[in-house]
Amino acid sequence: MTQHDLSYWEEMTERYFLAETTEEEERLLRNFLFTSQSQDARFNEIRATLSFLDVCKSQQAPRPRYTLRALAVAACLSAVAFIGWYQHQQQDISSVRIAGQTVEADASQLMEQQLAEMFSSTNP
Amino acid sequence: MKKLLTVILLILSSHSVLWAQKGLAIQTAFDELAVKKNATEVVMSGKRLKDFHLSLFHSLEIKSPSVADRQCISSLVQTDAVQAISQEETPAHSFYELPQRKGTHSYILYRNNGQSLTLIYIEGKASLKQIKQYFQKK
Hints:
Chain A is mainly α. Chain A folds into three domains: 6-60, no CATH class; 64-92; 94-124, no CATH class. Chain A is 65% helix and 6% strand. By secondary structure, chain B is an alpha+beta fold. Chain B is built from five helices and six strands; from the N terminus they run ααβαβαββββα. The longest helix of chain B is centred in the middle third of the chain and has 15 residues, at 67-81. The N and C termini of chain B lie far apart (52 Å). The mean pLDDT of chain B is 85. The A-B interface holds A 75-76, 79, 82-83, 86-87, 90-100, 107-108, 110-112, 114-122, 124 and B 4, 8, 11-12, 15-18, 34-48, 57, 59, 61, 88, 90, 92-93, 95, 109, 111, 118, 120, 129, 131-136, 138. Strand 1 (94-98) of chain A pairs antiparallel with strand 1 of chain B, so a sheet runs across the interface.
C-alpha cells in the first residue's frame, strides 16, 4: 500500500461520509485502519462505522446454500436406499404361521398343496 | 419436503404386499382368525412365485372349523364377491376374480369341505385358468 500522510486519509474519510468514495477507495481505507498509522483519534469514527458495518454484513450474509443442498441430496439418497431395502424385504416373503405363531415350514409346499386341493374337484 | 414424504409413502404403500388385500372384507379373516389354534396362515411373495406369474399368495386354512368360523368367512367372502368380475361357484368351492388393479389380477378362492376350510387370496399376472394349470396337475 502506498504511504500517504494522515491528511490524505482524513480527506478520504470525509468523502466516505459524503458517500463520494469508490469501492476501491473504501477497501484501501479499511486496510489503512488496520495500520498503526491510523491509531489517531481522528479515525475513531470511521473505524467504528466500518467495524459496525462489517459486523452487520457478516450477520446478514446468506448461509451457504451448499449445506442445504447437501442435506437434500443426503435425504434423497437415504430415501432411495430405504425404499430399495424395503422393496427387497417385501420381495421375498415366505412365512407360515400356525395359531398365530411363526413356524419353520416349507411355505411353497403348503401353497402347492392348498392350491392342488382347491382345484382338485374343478375343471381346468 | 412434504411432497417428498408423500411420494415415498405412496411408493412404499404401492409395494406393500402385506397390505395387498386391505380394503377387502376377507382382511378381517386373516387378521382375526389366523391366531386360532387350528389355523394355518401362509404368506408368500417374490421370486418363488415368479415361475407361476404370481406376486402374492396369502392363505388361511382352518381345520375342523366351528360353525361360527364357517359363517364368518363365508359372509366375508360373499361381501367381497359382490365386486367380482367373474366367479365360479359350487357347493364345495368358490372362486372370484376381482377387478384388475394396474394390470394385476387378484382372486379369492374359498373351499369348505366340512373337515377344513381354506381361504386364499392371490395376486399376479396369471389368469385363473393358468393358475389351475400350474397347480392342478401336481
